[in-house]
């Protein structure tokens, strides 16, 4: 990716926090990019396994009820894991887009700073703590 047209220090931080340094933001970007690559690979493997299991469904027609139920559970579990991986990838890619756009660290609900410490702990955060708590109460 290309360098951002702004300084990392321009990103918002909460009162009392040190501004982002270019090195900190660069390291965060690299970590997110590596994670996105790993998630894409994991998602590809998962989708291949799901497709193989769905292809096996025709040969499983004679299975007894317990075997069929067990295999159905496994397929549903793999689908759930695949969906979770897809969602994590979307969040990771969204964080990278926000870094490039210079909007990283701005709460998508209230527009206030999310907080550097929160983003260092959870780099995919899109909401400040207050808005996230409000969302979880709903």
From TrEMBL:
Any single Pfam family the record assigns to this protein: zf-dskA_traR
Keyword line: Metal-binding, Zinc, Zinc-finger
Chain intervals annotated as zinc finger (dksA C4-type): 107-131
Source organism superkingdom: Bacteria
Matches recorded under InterPro entries: DnaK_N (IPR037187), Znf_C4-type_bac (IPR020460), Znf_DskA_TraR (IPR000962), Znf_DskA_TraR_CS (IPR020458)
Limits of the Zinc finger DksA/TraR C4-type domain: 102-137
GO molecular function, one term: zinc ion binding
Region feature Disordered, mapped onto this chain: 1-20
UniProt keyword annotation of Ribonucleoprotein present: no
Keyword Signal: no
Name recorded for this polypeptide: TraR/DksA family transcriptional regulator
């Amino acid at each position: 990716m290309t360098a951002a047209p702004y300084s990392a220090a321009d990103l918002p931080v909460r009162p009392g926090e040190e501004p982002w340094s270019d090195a900190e933001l660069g390291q965060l970007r690299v970590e997110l990019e590596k994670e996105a690559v790993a998630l894409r690979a994991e998602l590809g493997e998962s989708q291949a396994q799901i497709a193989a299991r769905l292809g096996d469904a025709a040969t499983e027609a004679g299975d007894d009820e317990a075997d069929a139920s067990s295999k159905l559970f496994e397929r549903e579990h793999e689908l759930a894991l695949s969906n979770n991986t897809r969602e994590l990838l979307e969040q990771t890619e969204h964080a990278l887009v926000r870094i490039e756009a210079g909007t990283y660290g701005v709460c998508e609900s209230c527009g206030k700073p999310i907080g550097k410490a929160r983003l260092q702990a959870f780099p995919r955060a899109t909401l400040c703590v207050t808005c996230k708590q409000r969302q979880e109460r709903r």
